[in-house]
Specification:
Elements (H helix, E strand, L loop, with lengths): L18 H21 L4 H8 L3 H29 L1 H19 L5 H30 L4 H9 L1 H33 L1 H7 L13 H13 L9 H11 L6 H5 L8 H14 L4 H4 L1 H7 L4 H26 L8 H18 L5 H31 L4 H30 L3 H72 L1
Length: 490
């Protein structure tokens, strides 16, 4: 498997200091990026009635927002390389605020698609990618801890926004709530202000200190998600020649010949058709069963609390010496477990059953989220990680965009939400089984290639030793001949 990421940046990351303020800023920024599209589902039933649209049409709001967030990732990364994380995050906060403010004056559902979905989604992309990137510039040895703390922002903010949105709706309606939410998202601008560039003039550590840090980093090299984004982009940009085109810098098409990347990509496409739909329809499903609005919103808070607990726990478990060498199996289990939860959901009766489902689904969702980008780095290695993330997010836009509307279409056709969860469960279980089988094949091939590589190294080493002995013999013979010639001459 690929080795742990190294810090080939020309400076030593501080691994602390102002970096913890940056982590706090990333906590806020990442939290809003992932939680905001889910929390807006509280308003879906009322907006659906207001505009007289179908379930599938209202589901497009979250789908367009999530797809725009994924599609804007590569653009956001390019801007970060050019201008740094701070201004990009601030612009992202302003964009989301503007989108929500404009959406509050919407006269039809298309207006919401454009304002909330496109403008807001791209704003969230500008919040997410820079936050993931800058953590990688401030931390190396402590990067898993920093990433775990930053990624916890998603469930924390979701557990806060879900009941808050219901309170805002009861007091101000959905239009007034959108205006207030836009002002709340401006906190991302404050978070961005904390993300000052790292001081790259820090003196490098001594060899002993560096080797010690690298050994510690290898022990803890199970960091979540995409914190190596900046390391990889900066390293690649420095190593590439000026003659390379823009496309060659940011799109490595050779990844489509990489066995591990193709396995990840195919399984991910299937999985993402069913990844967000169960969250989007959780509150509407509860309301459909006659549960009151606040209790339905509370389900999202329970889901977020379980998610909040499991993410750092998954990172710690995945970093152990028993799991880390075969972390792809752990990820496959998490995906399959997710699907089983969805298949069991329609069997849950009443509000108590939905609470139990919310807990188990939160655990399953958090496990997949914690491992999603770590397993990609494990497959392709740190140097190609940033390019791989860009390709994956662009391709995943399709299923992210189509998944919730397709689920909404099932409700329109059958008149019941339970078919959403049956369909999503099947998609997730199929994806999990695919990951299990293909990763078994991949690990087997990797072991064979490793054995062949070791055998080749041993053979080359033996040949090199034989050559050295031969040269040494020839040198000794030459020295003897020279001595005899000199003796005869005398």
């Amino acid at each position: 498997m690929p080795p742990a990421a190294a810090t080939n940046l020309g400076y030593t990351p501080p691994d602390g200091g102002w970096g913890w303020a940056v982590v706090f800023g990333a906590f806020i920024s990442i939290g809003f990026s992932y939680a905001f599209p889910k929390s807006l589902t509280i308003y879906f039933k009322e907006i659906q009635e207001y505009f007289s649209v179908s379930y599938s049409e209202i589901a497009w709001v979250s789908s367009v927002m999530l797809a725009s967030m994924y599609a804007g990732g590569p653009v956001s990364s390019i801007l970060v390389n050019r201008y740094g994380s701070r201004p990009v995050v601030i612009v992202g906060g302003v964009m989301v605020c503007t989108g929500m403010a404009l959406a509050s004056f919407g006269t039809n559902i298309i207006h919401l698609y454009l304002c909330v979905g496109v403008i807001g989604g791209f704003g969230l992309a500008f919040n997410l990618q820079p936050s993931l990137t800058i953590i990688g510039t401030y931390f190396h040895v402590k990067r898993p801890i920093a990433n775990g703390l930053a990624m916890t922002g998603s469930p924390v903010i979701l557990s806060t926004l879900a009941p808050l949105n219901q309170l805002l709706f009861d007091s101000f309606g959905w239009r007034g709530s959108f205006l207030i939410l836009g002002s709340i998202v401006l906190n991302c601008c404050v978070a961005g202000a904390l993300m000052r560039p790292v001081n790259k003039s820090i003196q490098p550590k001594t060899i002993d200190e560096t080797s010690k840090c690298e050994s510690e980093a290898e022990e803890h090299a199970a960091a979540e998600d995409t914190s190596t984004h900046a390391d990889n982009l900066q390293t690649e940009d420095q190593s590439e020649s000026k003659g390379h085109s823009f496309v060659q810098k940011f799109i490595d098409v050779s990844l489509f010949r990489h066995r591990g990347f193709l396995i990840y990509l195919i399984g991910n496409v299937v999985m993402f058709f069913a990844f967000f739909a169960p969250v989007v329809f959780m509150a509407p499903y509860a309301k459909h069963q006659g549960i009151d609005e606040y209790s339905a919103a509370f389900l999202l808070s329970i889901f977020a609390l379980a998610d909040m607990f499991i993410r750092p726990t998954t990172g710690l478990v995945g970093n152990t010496k028993w799991i880390r060498p075969r972390i792809q199996y752990f990820f496959s289990f998490a995906v399959t477990y997710n699907g089983v939860c969805h298949l069991m959901c329609p069997l849950a009766s009443g509000y108590t059953g939905l609470l139990v489902y919310a807990v188990f689904f939160g655990l399953a969702f958090g496990m997949v989220s914690a491992l999603l980008f770590e397993v990609l780095m494990d497959l392709v290695g740190a140097p190609r990680f940033s390019t791989a993330v860009g390709l994956v997010t662009i391709i995943d836009c399709g299923p992210v965009l189509l998944g919730p509307p397709m689920a909404g279409a099932l409700v329109d056709y059958f008149g019941d939400y339970k078919y959403i969860y049956y369909a999503c469960g099947v998609f997730m279980v199929v994806s999990g089984i695919f990951f299990f089988v293909m990763h078994y094949y991949n690990y087997k091939k990797l072991d064979e290639e490793h054995r062949k590589s070791k055998a080749m190294e041993t053979r080359n080493s033996d040949e090199a030793n034989d050559s050295i002995l031969l040269l040494s013999k020839e040198d000794n013979i030459s020295q003897s001949d020279t001595f005899l010639l000199n003796t005869e001459h005398e």
